[in-house]
Amino acid sequence: MGLVLAEVLPLALAIAASPFTIIPAILLLFTPRARTTSAVFLVGWLVAIAASTTVFALLATVLDNYRETPTWVWWLRIVLGAALIVFGVLQWLGRKKPKPQPAWMRSISTATPVKALGLALVLALANPKILLLAAAGGLTIGAADLPAASVAATIAAFTIVASLSVAIPVVLYAILGERILKPLTVARDWLEGNNAVIMSIVITVIGVIVLLEGVAALR
Length: 219
What we know:
mainly alpha; 11 helices; globular
């Protein structure tokens, strides 16, 4: 289990490092019902990451039953790694292009708990970058031939680490209240200004790691 955790935690950290993960969590703290809305967003994010990771882990487990050596897992990791590298390169090439603020980001100022839950599910499940990282993590966990309890524990650890950047602002606000908003505003502005650069570096590095692991396993 420890080796599998060491392999998938960088993927979880890549999810946590995504501005698409951090910025909404911060913006929700400026809404009228900040504590409730941000807490619901955190719950939705946890559920979405756990669900997507579990689906791919189960897929790896089920398909593994039909083949003694699941080489398809490594080929899929190569494809996922290549896709992440492409996303990272495209993000880097477009880093200097001015982009309007997304509609979902503009709508956060009036978000209700229900909308916050929907936003968490959409950002975690419909964002290809986040989904590819969760898929790579789930496939690795499912292909590791771990006992069911260890699979569940590994998925839980993966989910918690991937959600740290959502959880930290929410917990800090719950403890410190509005005193935390000023430094979070600075962090939000920096992340918004450097979104493309951060994501291009993180996604490309993780993509290279995932691809090389797949290639090495096929040798």
